[in-house]
């Protein structure tokens, strides 16, 4: 058991930076650039000790024990090594309004927004403003706390696509989560004699002695939250929050925002996409990626349990894809992550039996409810939880099913589970080379107007469809209510550079000799007039995938033209064994709805992307409008 009482520190340490002892790890042997980074962080944040994490199970066990003793984690006794974490109720999701990109030139970070309009495709800050904001927060912010140094790889360590990061943090919860979500290893330090790394600085912003009360043993500083990205410096600074994408800096900050900027420079793609393998009854394997906004079904689709006989699905990744074309013109994808940080509510043995099997051990559940049997509980588990158990909600209060008006779990409560525990993980999920992609899907939660599936006419038409992705707002960020929001390419919160340039980058990827994947738009969330979903979703989505794969094999007999692209010809979607589905309604294209939608999209692009919008996107939108007017 690691012990950090002041007396012990002297017993164990020989190395120090200034007066700050290195309580674990060999600082002296580190590459110079790493030493410089750590020294900078120590001088800036003044922790009471430095701890070089090695990513081992032993280390994780020690931290778990420590966090259980403190009360940050509670063991869920019904399982082997599963833990519940309740956060401060003011720190439960990403904070998009406090997330910034810092660049020399504003328009490298964000598009030319129309005068008087508030930009929603990223927030820019100048270096001066950022320095002022950081100087208010970071100096001495780790006083009295340990600084953990976490060397991690995004992607398999031996993959030429992978990138290394070092995160410093004063949160042991973050350290435990990073070990699940990324590949943490001391071996990475050795590679850094030759290679560069992304610098990730994180603090919960709660130096000791703490002013005010810490809630749930979860130190944080919600009023002072800031998450700043410096793509030009390959640097991330995050302050005040310990939750998810705000604090696990390998994920959205690095693997999407910083990697996105790298990808543009180097000619590849960093996308908010799941990666899945589908083997057909004819034993042909395809790989597809799908970009859906947060809480719109990526994890579910990545682990889809097919209801059509003879189909097999295997998972490669559930949230992020890094992709590049190889010399033969094939688009290859890797999953840079090592685990799942999945939405808990809604997950059950009917909707996602595979996910349920991922987190029966070695997992952390954040802001879910707990039963008197020592099990997790959330909305969706009603049928799998005996009536007579007592439930404590995510806030730790007694909660009565059918009586309590509030929710049992937070809507953005999550499970953190190692990818290797997924029973359908693809044998090559961590293959350094990546898997070849045949189709790209876009989608969102669209209660009205948008058909179950449609196919883009071309690569550029697909980019236009992606640019027009919208979805109901979700609990994964600070939004309340259910407005429909633009979330182009499912990347609105995760863009690392000017969105117009991002669209241009996508367009420029189409080159002679490349096998461009087909692009589709799907919508599992259309509702009828009674408010109910028109499509059963989940495992039944294999029927849509089946149609998509037949299109990837160029079966032209199953499509028909429409103003929005190719639609399935009636009767070509396999509906065998389903209760009656209102196909006409599921695929209808209400003319006025679409004319309004196109108008909104044009307004969105004009206001939000302005002169940065690639002209071809506007032209394709115009064509779509004309096609609707004529039908
Ligand atoms: P992030 O981790 O935030 O990026 O979310 P995600 O895109 O991985 O979403 P996830 O798969 O976790 O699904 C979010 C919610 O949507 C869960 O409550 C699911 O139960 C629900 N959901 C997923 N797929 C479907 C579907 O096909 N139909 C319906 N009706 N709901 C779905
Ligand atoms: C998302 O919001 O898309 C997530 C959760 O996957 S977080 O890691 O918090 O970004
Ligand atoms: Mn996500």
UniProtKB/TrEMBL annotation:
Please list the residue ranges annotated as the Phosphoenolpyruvate carboxykinase C-terminal P-loop domain.
268-626
Per UniProt, which keywords does this protein have? Decarboxylase, GTP-binding, Lyase, Manganese, Metal-binding, Nucleotide-binding
Top-level EC class = lyase
> Do you know which InterPro entries this protein is assigned to?
PEP_carboxykin_GTP_CS (IPR018091), PEP_carboxykinase_C (IPR013035), PEP_carboxykinase_GTP (IPR008209), PEP_carboxykinase_GTP_C (IPR035077), PEP_carboxykinase_GTP_N (IPR035078), PEP_carboxykinase_N (IPR008210)
Q: Which cofactor does it need?
A: Mn(2+)
Q: EC number(s) in its UniProt entry?
A: 4.1.1.32
| Cellular component, GO annotation | cytosol
PROSITE patterns in the record: PEPCK_GTP
Locate the Phosphoenolpyruvate carboxykinase GTP-utilising N-terminal domain: which residues?
36-264
> What Gene Ontology terms describe what this protein does at the molecular function level?
GTP binding; manganese ion binding; phosphoenolpyruvate carboxykinase (GTP) activity
Q: Which GO BP terms sit in this record?
A: cellular response to glucose stimulus; gluconeogenesis; glycerol biosynthetic process from pyruvate; oxaloacetate metabolic process; propionate catabolic process; response to lipid; response to starvation
Q: Which domain of life is it from?
A: Eukaryota
Q: How does it assemble?
A: Monomer.
The Swiss-Prot or TrEMBL record describes its family as follows: Belongs to the phosphoenolpyruvate carboxykinase [GTP] family.
What is the official name of this protein in its record? phosphoenolpyruvate carboxykinase (GTP)
**Organism annotation:** Elysia chlorotica
């Amino acid at each position: 058991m690691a012990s950090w009482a002041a007396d012990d520190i002297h017993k164990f340490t020989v190395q120090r930076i200034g007066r700050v002892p290195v309580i674990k790890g060999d600082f002296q042997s580190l590459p110079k650039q790493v030493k410089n980074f750590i020294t900078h962080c120590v001088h800036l944040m003044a922790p009471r000790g430095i701890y070089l994490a090695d990513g081992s199970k032993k280390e994780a066990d020690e931290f778990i024990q420590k966090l259980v003793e403190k009360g940050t984690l509670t063991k869920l006794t019904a399982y082997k090594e599963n833990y519940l974490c309740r956060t401060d109720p003011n720190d439960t999701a990403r904070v998009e309004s406090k997330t910034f990109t810092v660049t020399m030139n504003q328009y490298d970070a964000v598009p030319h927004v129309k005068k008087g309009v508030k930009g929603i495709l990223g927030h820019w800050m100048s270096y001066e403003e950022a320095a002022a904001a950081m100087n208010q927060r970071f100096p001495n912010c780790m006083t009295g706390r340990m600084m953990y140094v976490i060397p991690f790889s995004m992607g398999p360590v031996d993959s030429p696509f992978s990138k290394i990061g070092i995160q410093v943090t004063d949160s042991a919860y973050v350290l435990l989560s990073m070990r699940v979500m990324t590949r943490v290893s001391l071996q990475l330090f050795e590679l850094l004699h030759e290679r560069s790394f992304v610098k990730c600085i994180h603090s919960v912003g709660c130096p000791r002695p703490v002013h005010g009360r810490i809630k749930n043993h979860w130190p944080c500083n919600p009023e002072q939250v800031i998450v700043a990205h410096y793509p030009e410096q390959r640097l991330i600074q995050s302050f005040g929050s310990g939750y998810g994408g705000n604090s696990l800096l390998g994920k959205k900050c690095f693997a999407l925002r910083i990697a996105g900027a790298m990808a543009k420079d180097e000619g590849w793609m960093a996308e908010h996409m799941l990666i899945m393998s589908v083997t057909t009854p004819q034993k042909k394997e395809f790989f597809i990626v799908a970009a859906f906004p947060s809480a719109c079904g990526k994890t579910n689709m990545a682990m889809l349990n097919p209801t059509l006989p003879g189909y097999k699905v295997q998972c490669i990744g559930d949230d992020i894809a890094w992709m590049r074309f190889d010399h033969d013109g094939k688009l290859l994808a890797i999953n840079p992550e090592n685990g799942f940080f999945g939405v808990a509510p809604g997950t059950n043995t009917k909707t996602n039996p595979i996910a349920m099997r991922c987190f029966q051990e070695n997992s952390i559940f954040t802001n879910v409810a707990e039963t008197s049997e020592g099990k997790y509980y959330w909305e969706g588990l009603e049928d799998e939880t005996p009536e007579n158990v007592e439930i404590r909600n995510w806030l730790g209060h007694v909660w009565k099913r059918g009586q309590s008006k509030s929710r049992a779990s937070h809507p953005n409560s999550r499970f953190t589970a190692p990818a290797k525990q997924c029973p359908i993980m693809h044998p090559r999920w961590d293959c350094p080379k990546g898997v070849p992609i045949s189709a790209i899907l876009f989608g969102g939660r669209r209660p009205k107007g948008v058909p179950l599936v449609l196919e883009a006419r071309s690569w550029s038409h697909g980019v236009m469809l992606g640019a027009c992705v919208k979805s109901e707002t979700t609990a994964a960020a600070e939004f309340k209510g259910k407005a429909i929001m633009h979330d182009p390419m499912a990347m609105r919160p995760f863009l690392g550079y000017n969105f117009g340039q991002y669209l241009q980058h996508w367009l420029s990827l189409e080159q002679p000799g490349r096998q461009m994947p087909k692009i589709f738009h799907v919508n599992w969330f259309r509702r009828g007039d009674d408010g109910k979903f028109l499509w059963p979703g989940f495992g039944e989505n294999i029927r849509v995938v089946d149609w998509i794969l037949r299109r990837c094999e160029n079966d032209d007999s199953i499509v028909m033209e429409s103003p929005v692209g190719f639609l399935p010809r009636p009767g070509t979607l396999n509906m065998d064994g389903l209760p009656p589905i209102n196909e006409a309604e599921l695929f209808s294209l209400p003319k006025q709805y679409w004319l309004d939608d196109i108008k909104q999209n044009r307004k969105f692009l004009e206001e939000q992307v302005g002169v940065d919008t690639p002209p071809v996107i506007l032209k394709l939108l115009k064509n779509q409008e004309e096609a609707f007017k004529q039908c």
